[in-house]
Amino acid sequence: xxxxxxxxxxxxxxxxxxxxxxxxxxxxxxILARGWTQPGGRPHAxxxxxxxxxxxARGATVYLTLEPCSHHGxxxxxxxxxIAAGVARVVVATGDPDARVAGRGLTRLRDAGxxxxxxxxxxxxxxxxxxxFKHREAGRPxxxxxxxxxxxxxxxxxxxxxxxxxxxxARAWGHRLRAEADAILVGSGTALTDDxxxxxxxxxxxxxxxVRVVLDGRGRxxxxxxxxxxxxxxxxxxxxGKGVPALPxxxxxxxxxxxxxxxxxxxxxxxxxxxxxxxxxxxxxxxLATALMRAxxxxxxxxxxxxxxxxxDGMAALDALGIEEMGSLRHWRRRRLQILGDDILESLxxxx
Length: 352
What we know:
26% of the residues lie in helices and 25% in strands.
């Protein structure tokens, strides 16, 4: 199953709105075939593996990271394909939260006489497809915040200079995170100040750049920006208020304003979910990160820290969160700690 989860990870950022699924077909201790969800979500992992296994799949055991689908879409149900192939046993990490499946795939297999086991490495499987689960269960994508700071939590000097706080190994890992995201979200301030490309520039992964999204309620992004100029090469979207003029090649999603006059963040994430986005990586700026934290909309943090200090006159990673008592602190648990050159990456998740 852990091997199947590794296969599934290959699809992250490249298969939305579908989940990233891995499939392994085994017989007599020998791996017959491997499969994982292909770009755009089709073909499914099961179909890929069954095609490779051919007639050898009869009587085999199948390891699946997610319950097989049981509904007709652009492809027939994967549960039916497994039955037709004559497999004897299916081990599933976790059920599918999609209302069109939700246990029906498992029931179909059992009714066909196939032995079914569920729950092997379930936590890891749900974590890998956290975006898909959040999308189906809460109607929004999972939100990951990426921070790159000094030891004292600064993202820039007093003059705004920030390139580069972290070293090349950490920056390369940041591009890997981009490759696994469906979309990168930045605020209009970051888009104007940094004029970023927001693409994945790792060798061999140039085609894995996510959708680039700017929270641009007032339409501040200019037609001469890198994001707009390259919108024909890498999809570029804006979350905008009503009446904001269009930009060439950019897709606009109109979002209502909240009580504070800024775009409603819940509505903004729902709009992205409506387009099929399941995993959003937030890269800046400070105002957007703070607003998402205050609204309790951050599901994970990838925090890169360089062994350097800027001091009190530097620009902090977050603005005020309005916390007056220790009992109001939101606590995070460390899921992983990595050394990347001279820098440290902490991957964090909420404790609740």
